[in-house]
Amino acid sequence: MEKFLISAGLVLCLVCLVKCVRFSQYLFLRFCKALPSSFLRSMGQWAVITGAGDGIGKAYSFELARHGLNVVLISRTLEKLQAIAEEIERTTGSRVKVVQADFTREDIYDHIKEQLEGLEIGVLVNNVGMLPSIFPGHFLSTPGESQNLIHCNITSVVKMTQLVLKHMESRRKGLILNISSGAALRPWPLYSLYSASKAFVYTFSKALSVEYRDKGIIIQVLTPYSISTPMTKYLNNRITKTADEFVKESLKYVTIGAETCGCLAHEIIAIILNQIPSRIFYSSTAQRFLLAQYTDYLKRSISN
């Protein structure tokens, strides 16, 4: 028994040490410019961003253009894309290509493939996604068409990765960033469909990362908790990052590993939430809290 306790204690110490080392990496990368400015540009001439018309996708489009990449903007609303493209070209000098596509549909990928033909794509940001409602609710009361969400949150990641990855593999370099959610790190009742769809992105990305890391391709999944975007009704609270803040910080962590929350503040939140036992997290009391007090809190945060 004594040997067992000593061994268990050593294992626990080792786990804590690994977490401390990883957290130290975040601190270093957060406050130091560890990546050379040419790193992203070295992946290839073009970056492809889905859901580029708003929020995180729009922020990635501008930031990657500032790093010297030409960008392909893919989203549903042509007018938004054209306005963003004009501003990116004017402010950064990068070339911009616009592709109109509705990711709730399954028949769009031949058209996207044609539009990407001949481009040396070094970066893919699978960002497009849907959240049925920012407010918690039971599955049967979830608004919208569930198949649309599955196409948008899951099919888009698989299909866009298929289109781009084969060319990255032949060049033996590339970066794929898949935007998941903190809701993917454990099942979230009352956000069941969204949580499950983002869990697919999380698992798919981590598996691909192992498959292709020896071929010079970085595949990373990002699991932020709260970003102020149109999808989240421009939520405003202490833990919420703006899209621009999140994107600029997340690009510092592209070499840190297969997964990251994308910002130091959300890494801390993930550590705290991970300490909550499942029996508490999934208790009836916790679910009632989400439906009542948390809903009221969200309404106040949105109105502010």
Walkthrough of the structure:
There is one protein chain. With 304 residues, the protein is of the alpha/beta class. Helices cover 52% and strands 13% of the residues. Helix 3 packs across helix 8 and helix 6 packs parallel to helix 7.
Write the layout of secondary structure elements.
Elements: H1 2-31, H2 39-42, E1 46-50, H3 55-66, E2 70-75, H4 78-92, E3 96-100, H5 109-116, E4 121-126, H6 146-171, E5 174-179, H7 192-212, E6 217-222, E7 227-228, E8 241-242, H8 243-250, E9 259-260, H9 264-274, H10 278-281, H11 284-303
Helix pairs in contact: 3-8, 6-7
Low-confidence stretches: none
What's the gyration radius in Å?
20 Å
- Which homologous superfamily in CATH is the superfamily? NAD(P)-binding Rossmann-like Domain
Output the number of helix runs.
11
Approximate shape: globular
Percent range for β-strand residues: 5-15%
In angstroms, what separates the terminal alpha carbons? 57 Å
Reported for the largest beta sheet, the result is: 7 strands, parallel
What is the name of the CATH architecture?
3-Layer(aba) Sandwich
> What do we call the CATH topology?
Rossmann fold
Structural class determined from secondary elements:
alpha/beta
